[in-house]
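Supplementary Methods S3. Complex input for the zinc ion-bound model.
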Amino acid sequence: MKLIDTARFCKDSASLFGTYTETDLPRLASEVLPSSSFNVAWTADGESPDLLDLTLKATVQMKCQRCLGGMAEPIDASYRFQFVKDEATAQAQDEAQDEVDTLVHSRQFDLHELIEDEMLMALPFVSLHEICPEAGAVAFLPVDAKPNPFAVLQNLKSMA
Ligand SMILES: [Zn+2]
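Predicted complex, serialized as structure tokens:
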């Protein structure tokens, strides 16, 4: 958690920045290529009276939906949020305009959670290589390849 008092953060035009890794963002880690690592560099800038600018930069490893291989997806996103006093106002505002996302002011607003939410939203819906690396290039051994000595040993063991 990274809690901020949003009214004060905006009023003071405060700034925060940092980097989150796969251990900080487990929900994001479960959406990218398993066991891959990433760094999300983020900045949050308050602006009086009620605005928050958030930027996110990262490269995450996604699974290509065509060849199932890993591929790097760069994420470079920026968002502007407007804080309002309550949920009802937020809903009315969201319906009226779509350029600015609305959030509700809080003395204990979790910036960490917002960053993870927005990273999840920024992921591509489907990842595909522009050109998939040739399938099977690594998987097939040349016909004259010597058998793996350990595999032979394994066979001997299973025959015994
Ligand atoms: Zn592919």
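Strands lie at 3-4, 15-21, 39-47, 51-63, 70-84, 101-104, 109-110. The longest strand covers residues 70-84.
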